[in-house]
């Protein structure tokens, strides 16, 4: 069989899409197009620009291994800085010509003659031999179904679609949601607000960290001067951080207990008011939900103009929010920090695979894939940061690079003429998912709390293994797990 250059379309130009474009370009693939629905690259860092936005992972870890940045201004970078970094990486590595912005894919249909047909929102049709969905996890804002929300007289803004023209100074602000976003936005808006009410359905453990601390002077110059040292340091920190997080989250140990004790200590030491402390104390183990890190929230919520509201929201009125105990609190602005539909992946795009299988049917019991990247019934389609990605433990940039390298090996087989289609078997996918379910047993995510890690069926959509296992699983393809033609 004689091979040819595969036509590859990557959907999404966030962390996963940028990494995939880079890896495929480095492996010599010349027909790669990245379609991005946003007007700029960066994915979640393009769409999110609410006040107080910072990454909850230190910047020296949260960056591309192939493009480490020496001059992070802060140890925990702001959203603006990270968005800028992504743009710079794309420009400096010459990836921009591969990326088409403002191009949303609405339909992705497998043509039984052996290729994918993509339709864009503008009505254009594109053909690809392979499609790689790098569509992200924290992508589709979740808007809760609260009675009366549509009747509120003032602005209602979701944090993931922040209106930069919104003036919050001197206003009465209601913030709903207490994940990382709610905690950051309350901390940022509280000082200039007339009043801020934080509506908390479930309390969060909050680890104290000096998030706005600046990177030590001189570090940037040293790292820029010695790139090899910088890369080595990056690997040490990213791998060390992943190992530590994997350890504390996936099995009970003294290290897990130590981090949990630290979370309890943060609350005890920082909140002296016993009544407030009782309201802030969660009824589940620290680390069960995605851990919130903040250096300022406890101070903000303890301020005179802030109130923590734990009563259930009954309804939104034209002028504010009424809770189930009958209390009405006036508000000028409602901020929804209510997170994301984290298990949509490429949907609501219409995705139809072999024998007209619809992804909604294939995933009727929740998203499932083989080793985060391949889905039975969907030949020549891969995901990067797909189901069971390690969003709670291992570097997502590293995971993206490893997955893209794995996919590249399949593309090389196509190019060499060794295959025209590749589709993971149902058996291999079931085996992988059974192993995942077993490994979830001792994880801290399985200790009884509600979080965006859980699918509707209660499955934990995370990676319960360590990085070494990930390297083994994505090191090289196992043809026995696939149907090849
Ligand atoms: P999260 O962590 O999913 O938080 C969403 C919050 O919204 C959470 O506190 C929810 O309460 C709350 N929520 C959702 N629906 C409602 C209703 N109907 N009423 C009251 N409260 C509600 O999203 P984030 O954006 O903060 O963070 C996502 C990730 O981004 C984060 O983990 C970091 O990795 C970065 P619940 O806890 O479900 O009771």
UniProtKB/TrEMBL annotation:
Keywords: Oxidoreductase. It is an enzyme of class 1 (oxidoreductase). The lineage of its organism: Bacteria, Bacillati, Actinomycetota, Actinomycetes, Mycobacteriales. Its EC number is 1.14.13.-. It comes from [Mycobacterium] zoologicum. This is NAD(P)/FAD-dependent oxidoreductase. The keyword Oxidoreductase applies. Pfam families: Pyr_redox_3. GO terms for molecular function: oxidoreductase activity. It comes from the Bacteria. The keyword Phosphoprotein does not apply. InterPro entries: FAD-bind_Monooxygenase_sf, FAD/NAD-bd_sf.
